[in-house]
Amino acid sequence: MLKKLQRKFVAIAILALFTVVFVELFAVNVVNVYQRDSDSKSILYLIAQNDGVLPNTAVDDVFGAGWNPFGRSQITVETPYSTRYFVVKLQGNTVTDISTKNIASVSDRTAFEYAAKIYGEEPGYGFVDIYRYYYVKDSSTGNAIMVFLDFERELEETFTLAMISFLVGVIFVVLLSFPVYLMTRSALSPVRRSIAQQKQFITDASHELKTPLAIISADADVLEMCGGENEWVSSIKSQTARLNTLVRNLVSLSKLDETANEAEHIEFNISEAVLDTALNFEPMAKSKNLRFTLDVTPNLTIKGNEGEIRQLVSLLCDNALKYTDDDGEIRISLYKSGKTLTLDAYNTCESIDKEKLPHLFDRFYRADPARARETGGYGIGLSIAKAIVDRHKGKISASSPDGKSVLFRVLL
């Protein structure tokens, strides 16, 4: 249980760390993209407004209300010398001028081809291949200007920043995972000690109770021999027997918890184990006029602790006998589906609240306390069954399709 709890804590802590880091990195990259896009629009706008030439003067805010969080100039006196662009001017459908003097990799013919690509587009900003363009058209005169800005370096730098930030984020989260694990382990130390103390208390208390219970039982036998059988002596013996059973169950459950990683698992024939154990309950079922059915696939094997699996079957059969209604039915089945072995214990009952089903495996929980007192139940048998299943890395669940029957399913 502690290992599962620790894994959950670690997973939640790492997930939270991952979320914070990558939200921050995402925000940085978004701001970077926005800033580069804003700068490119400013440059394109200036070129278009200056008749196809980028002025060599510093400009702080091209649009008059631009977002400039870092307080830097968007355009500097050095910008014209580091900006690669070409311009195409038109009069109606005719190209009147092509300027490629500010970019060496584009010829006039190539510039004309790019202009043809965007000629049918709506005026405004856009992308074509690696170029950011600004298309301005004067509807009154028919004049138009197309400014193309080489955006390849910005795209590469943006992609590089995104990759580096992602890798740094992954490395950062991985490196911090180990300290998070250690801190989580340290934080759970009080819980670990508390659970260990609870287990030790149950073990010590159970052992301490054995002696007085044995004395009470012996005294009751002496009283019965001396004074004959009567309801008071019978009550003492009955309650002593119940307490002895409870103590044995508590010790058994405590041992299962304490030796969770020490059980010897060997391969054995589980079909024979289930049949041998379940058949012992058939006479008791018949004496109560209950239909008892066994459907066990033969020669199925599993690697585990045979004694504990027999105890599991015994607990499920005993639980079914206690809570099956009059003239009801009990079915025990074992079959294999793929690589999974399924053990089912089904029994009819008077009624069961489906909301209570998940709590049936809680210690000392009883869905019907009155019925439990009649049958001698303590609400601990199914807890032991779950502990056994957990030790075998399996799963156990309870379901009720109609509210008048219950199915315990074990997957191993």
Structure explained in plain terms:
- This protein has 412 residues and is an alpha+beta fold.
- The protein folds into three domains: 2-157; 200-258, Helix Hairpins (Orthogonal Bundle); 266-411, 2-Layer Sandwich (Heat Shock Protein 90).
- Helix content is 53%, strand content 19%.
- The protein contains eleven helices and twelve strands.
- It has helices spanning 2-49, 79-82, 108-118, 152-187, 189-227, 231-258, 270-279, 282-287, 306-323, 369-375, 381-391; strands at 85-91, 94-99, 124-128, 131-137, 143-150, 266-269, 291-296, 301-304, 329-337, 340-348, 395-399, 405-411.
- A five-stranded antiparallel beta sheet has the order 2-1-5-4-3, with helices on both faces. A five-stranded mixed beta sheet has the order 7-9-10-12-11. It has a two-stranded antiparallel sheet with strand order 6-8.
- A hairpin with a 2-residue loop joins strand 9 and strand 10 (340-348).
- The longest helix has 48 residues, at 2-49.
- It is elongated, with a radius of gyration of 40 Å.
- 19% of the residues are buried.
- The mean pLDDT is 81.
